[in-house]
Design brief:
homodimer; about 800 residues; mainly alpha; Clc chloride channel; CBS-domain; 3 domains; three-stranded mixed beta sheet
Chain lengths: ~800, ~800
């Protein structure tokens, strides 16, 4: 457990075990800062991956591709005829260079286009290449939809397994078991004969204290069993499968490489453990992890298409679309899914991707619908239909719900981050299995006695959203009926009956429990989503408020505020709508989603009518939450784990200049540079072994410091290694030159080594006087890894993405070194 | 008419009449390329604006703001205490510098934030500043919604005026007039007594040949009157009010400045002439112009808020949101509107804007609904409800419709562009009024005899989308009824009656007429949108195909392809759905919209069910149209008019380098540069008068060519002018220095003039070896005006946005000079 591998985003060391292609002999380079990457709040032990090397590593290597051609686009290859293996690839835990990747893709595209004029076969290749993106989207949609259906069905069955078993066949869940039963009315559903609770099965009794305790015990036992299985599977087979995955996916989409995070083992284990975790009754949802599952599908399917396998930037376009498909199946909201991907997850999202994402999201949603896991032919998770329009005055309670949502969101983020930090820094983090078991046990013990916490959270939300009909038998709809005033579909507001009051108490208790337990649940070593628990908190609060307002309006319909629209016999308050607004507010407070949130909720109801209340609540919630803390839960987790994520939404507002951020600082030794035609192989090798930088600027001469280009450490090492092996006469005293023509050599000197092909002749530069806000903007928009700094045409220093991130942390009064990559 | 003003995007001359603030004495600068800016396909005569100088110019000047502080952010002002008026502003027909504008906004924000700690008043200022964006959105939504309602109501009334008048009061339209009439059934609607056709009014006869001819005559007469009024108003008061406005708005949003294009005169005239143009029966729609109207609202309301008035980049964010509000009111589709703005119109669209746009779109939609111009409380323009799901096999006709849509789109664009080019290059363009009258007359004469062309196009589309109910009396629903097989809501497929066959013939004729006349209509000097005519073409084609398939299925239900889902008595084909799919396909073919198109159509039906057919058609249509010609109609018009618009969607795929594009070329004289501390005022003034460049690089010395910064021509002229007037001792022999400290001067030399404050110390640079694809990417993503080119640290040349555009045109085998700014 104590073993730490050196991982360093910008200045990678070469002895990283993830790097296995070019087997060169660089050795003395473990002097870089020690860094430890963390996944979802717990220390990720990289030695653990040694337990699953054959498959996970395979994928890792699969993902590491050969660069076909030099990394510098548009430059002639004149060093050797075939490209050097390894040049142009990335190591694990490194940031990709978007500009380079996109150039490579354009080169590829150009080549295919040019060839297509030569033969019919090449033309077919071009057309198939053009349509491969759509085919890939189709496959992602199908796979993600199918997996989501599978997860839904299994989770349903296993959730019911905690309470009993079907005699007609253990593989039926409660609902299916009772489908053909004679008791068809909703009220008798619980009493169908084919379904036996555990007490009925074991002691043939369904009533009485002992039967209750037995059922209680079995409920908690199953929950513990599921949780144990989930956490063990995650720990043993795929440590990346825990958490919601969204913070990591955001980081990956921004250009970071985490090998295996979207691999097939992660997919398999996450799918299985997600079912287990949801069934265990923990306060977590499957929506976030479904995004991770869909992204795994996307990543794996990318390997079938050269275009996407070999290009990190193109692959990220696919992953953005896959994330949209994930949300689409989670909620049955394809448009909302695409907007979620655009707003929350993606970094680089060209319009072409928008259209493809939409296609993938739609295919996924319809695949899920044809599997029909909810048994109602509905696309959406919570189908709601309200009959009454809302009144303008109701905006007041809606805004109140927004405030509640914002407060809860901010409180939850603070609490959860504090707890995750505690887990990280104390002994707690060392016993993840025990932690999961304890939380599961507490959740189970507290949940069973209260029917609203005993049922699955999505069922609870469904019930809270529901507008009470005449025949609804649930406690929440136990109103004092007055059939005389009923007109058609519309039910007038009525006095609450005893059932409603009981339900109110139980819901209040459920609210407190959900609020507290969710803080401790999110971040454990099991797959856990946040959407459903957040929505549940909001829906409970909303329903409570809704019933309150409804009763107020019923008993005080003569108050001025109710007069006119809430006269006796009018159906003026819909508590279900309050629940929905509350759910949106809480989800907004936690995730800080805006448009996508409203659109997802809109797709649930299908009526533009209710967008205004949802929008009012979402806006208030975001403002309130932002006033307390700027970060949403995903950003908070990204920062907690120190991922190198350059937030695209927050503006950098400080007045610093590039010269304040660049390396070397004034007190540092001067910048390490290569000269274009005067250093020997030995000089360069010494420089490489003495420093840990990921690249070196090349200048005309040390005196002039006029910049020629930039060369990557990795390419340099591979090329020298390769030349020493394959090129005759290359020895330590050979001159390395980056110029087009070799410099004049003294007689009897060894042949010089030309490395112009690995030199990036178009490095990005800024002047030392450039404000950092512009530099940050350039890094974000162009997806740079590094940028060189000049003053009056002379090279002065270098700014890496890591420097930028450190500087931003410093400006926000955070200790940069304790924050990043720790 | 022959008068041409010099307009040149990047290298503006200073004697542009649009520029009036800094009245300095630069004179000898009219040597730049002659350029003529065109609006909507006809030569725009700038001398014409002299007819409306007081107001239009006022606004123009209103839009030109004073730069508060230097244009270079974060630099101390040490030249004079107060900022020099004019420094940091733009001239008309110039491209803004996004980086500079955003820096200015951040400076402003920083200042407010810092001040807010000092006093409560400043804190309130800060809060109000933060919320001003939302307030602005609210106002835009309210104004755009109200105007859209006004336009709808007026256009309804005036369209009906062509056919007759209401006796109860001439201000009632046909529908309102007959509302209280005793004949309430739909069939008798046309016979209500209060509504008199012109023949009834004039000769008291409604039947007979003479009455028909009289009505015919009045119809055409009114149409000509409306058209004449519209084109005259446009020509006299606001030449910018013609066309759809979307190409120009795209250009403005990409950073170009066209003063007065979004001014109050344009708004007023466009609103009035839009009503007239729509009422005249021309084959045009109000949807595109509504976007222009909404953007005018946005621009005018910006003047109430300093934050937006003074910053061109911030203002463009508001305009993006206003465009969304425009589409939102046009179709009643707020989500579709936002996506349209994102996909089609906007250039720089941060996520913050997405959320605000959504708010504006929603407010606008609900404002319109509360005005309720359609009298049905529906938000959407065409409310449709289908009862039958579609069958998988129907995808074949849907794809066929997609192909038709794509072909029509490509054909329309080619035809329209060819006609517009003809209008531009021949005598035709000199008689815009005559042209409008002729087209109106032809349209009116052809339209009246056919009831499907006589009705307004949106009514036609409504009728085509409609799913025939049992009681529908329209000819399109004249089926052979067989009431025995009717089950509830669902009508089985039936044999078509005589009415349907007549309707088919009339629709076919209408299709041919619409296809041809639209080509000549779009681009005339009246406000004209394309959405509705395109949708009409597609809806007619779709309905024809739908009825065909329906009858095929009815008579041949035993064919294998129909077996199983189209048995007798089944309601299997919905011709209305075909019409809708066809409309989407044609709209997609013309505009090349994707996601926004599907979402707008989805919002019309409200059922996710029908997204798949829509998507299939939209995808096919786009592919087919793209295969024929890459550009959508808006891009084609942008290119036709030579606007400096750098398309963000198309990838630049050629292998050229920065050195191939930069100026000076090899054969040109060397680059004009300023030195940092050795040129006199006279030297600089000579340089300015001898060249027309919009800016000059500043180097350490001519020998070293090491770059120090970049200074804008305009700032330089204003500063020197200012210094000569206000600073003692500044004469022609004074040394200008851009350094921090003044250079050592010989004794008795005049004091030197320090201009560091106008020097941009952080100009963007690329190396000469940078591939152009990367340069184009940088220009797009960062919104640059120019970029300097270096080689090994030495300044080599400059690339302006115009050079990039010319190069792209050249690479696409278009003559760059005939294309741009002509």
């Amino acid at each position: 457990m104590g073993e730490r591998k050196e991982l360093n985003s910008e200045s990678d060391t070469m002895d990283n075990p993830g790097f296995r292609r070019g087997s060169f002999s660089s050795s003395n380079s473990s002097t870089s800062d020690e860094a430890l990457v963390e996944i979802s709040g717990t220390t990720l032990d990289f030695s653990m991956t040694d337990d699953v090397p054959p498959l996970d590593r395979d994928l890792g290597e699969f993902m590491s591709y050969n660069g076909e051609g030099a990394n510098v686009p548009n430059k002639m290859m004149d060093f050797l005829e075939e490209p050097i293996p390894g040049v142009g690839t990335y190591e694990d835990f490194n940031t990709i260079d978007w500009v380079r990747e996109k150039s490579r893709d354009r080169d590829r595209h150009r080549e295919i286009t040019n060839k297509s004029k030569e033969s019919t076969w090449a033309l077919i290749h071009r057309v198939s290449d053009a349509f491969s993106g759509w085919l890939l989207m189709l496959l992602i949609g199908l796979l993600a939809g199918s997996l989501a259906g599978l997860i839904d069905i299994s989770a349903h069955w296993m959730t019911d397994l905690k309470e009993g078993v079907c005699l007609r066949g253990f593989w039926f869940n409660h609902e299916h078991c009772c489908w053909n039963s004679k008791q068809v009315t909703f009220e008798d559903r619980d009493k169908c004969l084919e379904w036996n609770s555990w007490s009925e099965l074991i002691i043939s009794k369904s009533e009485g204290a002992f039967a209750y305790i037995l059922n209680y015990f079995m409920y908690v036992l199953w929950a513990l069993l599921f949780a144990l299985l989930a956490v063990s599977l995650v720990r043993v087979f795929a440590p990346y499968a825990c958490g919601s995955g969204i913070p990591e996916i955001k980081t990956i989409l921004s250009g970071f490489i985490i090998r295996g995070y979207l691999g097939k083992w992660t997919l398999i284990i996450k799918t299985i453990t997600l079912v287990l975790a949801v069934s265990s009754g923990l306060s977590l949802g499957k929506e976030g992890p479904l995004v991770h599952v869909a992204c795994c599908c996307g990543n794996i399917l990318c390997h079938c298409f050269t275009k996407y396998r070999k290009n990190e930037a193109k692959r990220r376009e696919v992953l953005s679309a896959a994330a949209a498909a994930g949300v689409s199946v989670a909620f049955g909201a394809p448009i909302g899914g695409v907007l979620f991907s655009l707003e929350e997850v993606s970094y680089y999202f060209p319009l072409k991707t928008l259209w493809r994402s939409f296609f993938a999201a739609l295919v996924a949603a319809f695949t899920l619908r044809s599997i029909n896991p909810f048994g109602n032919s509905r696309l959406v998770l919570f189908y709601v239909e309200f009959h009454t329009p809302w009144h303008l005055l109701e905006l007041v309670p809606f805004v109140l719900l927004g405030i509640f949502g914002g407060l809860w969101g901010a409180f939850f983020i603070r609490g959860n981050i504090a707890w995750c930090r505690k887990r990280k820094n104390t002994q707690l983090g060392k016993y993840p299995v025990l932690e999961v078991l304890i939380v599961t046990a507490i959740t189970g013990i507290l949940a069973f006695p209260n029917e609203y916490t005993r049922m699955s959270t999505s069922e609870l939300i469904s019930e809270l959203f529901n507008d009470c009909g005449l025949l609804d038998s649930s406690k929440l709809c136990d109103y004092v009926s007055n059939f005389n005033t009923t007109k058609g579909d519309q039910l007038p507001d009525r006095a609450a009956g005893a059932g409603v009051y009981t339900a109110m108490w139980q819901l209040s208790l459920a609210l407190v429990m959900k609020i507290l337990i969710t803080i401790f649940t999110f971040g454990m070593k099991v797959p856990s989503g946040l959407f459903i628990p957040s929505m549940a908190v909001g829906a409970i609060a909303g329903r409570l408020l809704g019933v309150g307002v409804e009763q107020l309006a019923f008993y005080h319909h003569d108050w001025p505020i109710f007069r006119g629209w809430c006269s006796p016999g009018a159906d003026c308050i819909t508590p279900g709508l309050y629940a929905m607004v509350g759910a949106a507010a809480c989800l907004g407070g936690v995730t800080r989603m805006t448009v996508s949130l409203v659109v997802i909720m809109f797709e649930l109801t299908g009526g533009l009518e209710y967008i205004v209340p949802l929008m009012a609540a979402a806006m208030t919630s975001k403002w309130v939450a932002d006033a307390i803390g700027r970060e949403g839960i995903y950003d908070a987790h990204i920062r907690l784990n120190g991922y190198p994520f350059l937030e695209a939404k927050e503006e950098f507002t400080h007045k610093t200049l590039a010269m304040d951020v660049m390396r070397p600082r004034r007190s540092d030794p001067t910048l390490m540079v290569l000269t274009q035609d005067s250093m020997t192989v030995e000089d360069v090798e010494t420089l490489i072994s003495e420093t840990t930088y990921s690249g070196y600027p090349v200048v005309v001469s040390r005196e002039s410091q006029r910049l020629v280009g930039f060369v990557l450490r990795r390419d340099l090492i591979i090329s020298i290694e390769n030349a020493r092996k394959k090129q005759d006469g290359i020895v330590s005293t050979s001159i390395i030159h980056f110029t087009d023509h070799s410099p004049p050599l003294p007689p009897h000197a060894p042949p010089s080594l030309k490395l112009r092909n690995i030199l990036d002749l178009s490095p990005f530069t800024v002047t030392d006087q450039t404000p950092m806000e512009i530099v940050v903007d350039i890094f974000r928009k162009l997806g740079l890894r590094q940028c060189l700094v000049t003053h009056n045409g002379r090279l002065l220093g270098i700014i890496t993405k890591k420097d930028v991130l450190k500087h931003i942390a410093q400006m926000a009064n955070q200790d940069p070194d304790s924050i990043l990559f720790n």
